[in-house]
# Entry
Amino acid sequence: MSHLSKLTSNLRDPVVSAMTGLFSHGPTPLANTLDFAGDPGLLGPDSVSWSVLGDAAVFVGGIRALVVQSAHPEVVAGVEDHSTYRSDPLGRLSRTSVYVTETTYGAMPEVEAAIEVVRRAHRPVTGISERNLPYSANRPEMAAWVHNVLTDSFLSAYQAFGPERLSATDADRFVAEQARIGKLFGADPLPETAEELASWITNHPDRVASKAQASAISFLRNPPLNPPVKLGYRLLFDAALTTIPADIRTQLEVEPSKRAVGIGVNATKSLRWALGASPSWQLALVRCDAPIPAGLFRQPLPTQGREES
# Structure
């Protein structure tokens, strides 16, 4: 290894370790995806979703989704009443990451299995919110809030911090592609353009501040993470706040710092340099025998080093 290569590796390795530490508290996604050779999955290599969700801006989008999802009092009540996120602060983030990865990049059996895992996990998530309304995580309208906010968050983060903005046409394609996942999940309604999606969330009639919202936001501001991971998380959290519409930020009582946009741009550029594009994207391309873009991927494939059976 040359001196420059060794120096580059020494700079990248701590970043890779810290960031993967945020999302490594769940099962490994796509563990057996190469068993489904040629299966393009639900979206396929030519989709906008594969490139959007393969970029480093996805880290900002994932955090943004957790923040905005807490604006719905029944959804956040379900999280507060049933989630183990306080004892396992990164578990929810990791489970969301696995779900997004498998439904986006997986072969169809993996997509269907990921949907079923979430459906099973949501069956017992029922109760009464603090405004005395019943909730059930499997109700179409609650599933829609979770799914639509996730889609909008990934799109907003990519438009703000991705390598280049999507055209209006490609932004709409991304939303329509993600709506196909939402339909499998049983979510309804599912806006299919970026403008309709953003409007649906901003003007949602169930957006009401709650004690559960305040509790969730307090936790998301300052989760109990080890210092290197917490530093990276706080930078991404602050960047995520810049992409949230002002009236939703007012409800959530969150405001980014004055330098959050610039820091977010630099942080995602650094992550893009250190991590490259998602190895799950590369793995899905290999499964489909699709061309591998040169210079885009830097991490080893998740299957490398696995013993052959």
User: Anything to note?
Assistant: The radius of gyration is 19 Å.
